[in-house]
Specification:
With 126 residues, the protein is an alpha+beta fold. The protein is built from 4 helices and 5 strands. The longest helix has 17 residues. It is globular and about 45 Å long.
Length: 126
């Protein structure tokens, strides 16, 4: 093939590819994809104990809870006091959980390796 003709063909291909070049990727609008939510309104009944609430949170979050035998008895018999919206974003569950446990007189203390997400539920010091 003649060098001038080769140059013309390559120039045409280059120009055509530039005209059909992919555009910049569009950013995902966070408003278009709402964050996953958890509805804990079923825990609002007066018969929900702290233990029941913790079990529900464990199912929803993958967090794990442990407690001593004496605290376990209290958690089984103490009604859970809940405040605020019970329809929360999944990523807010750990913060919401810590606040609700605190309001009810307990605290969460991380125990064991961090990747296991285990929390000791214990009475807050008086």
């Amino acid at each position: 093939m003649h060098p001038a003709r080769t140059f013309a063909v390559l120039s045409a291909l280059l120009l055509a590819s530039a005209c059909h070049a992919p555009t910049e990727p569009r950013s995902v609008d966070s408003a278009a994809a709402p964050a996953p939510r958890i509805d804990l309104s079923d825990c609002a009944s007066s018969s929900t104990t702290i233990e029941t609430f913790l079990k529900r949170c464990q199912q929803e979050s993958g967090l794990n809870f442990t407690f001593e035998a004496e605290v376990a008895k209290e958690l089984r018999s103490t009604p859970m006091k809940l405040f605020g919206s019970l329809n929360i974003e999944r990523q807010e569950l750990p913060r919401f959980l810590a606040a609700m446990i605190d309001v009810n007189g307990y605290e969460l203390a991380p125990v064991g390796p961090e990747h296991l997400h285990v929390f000791l539920v214990q009475r807050k010091p008086s």
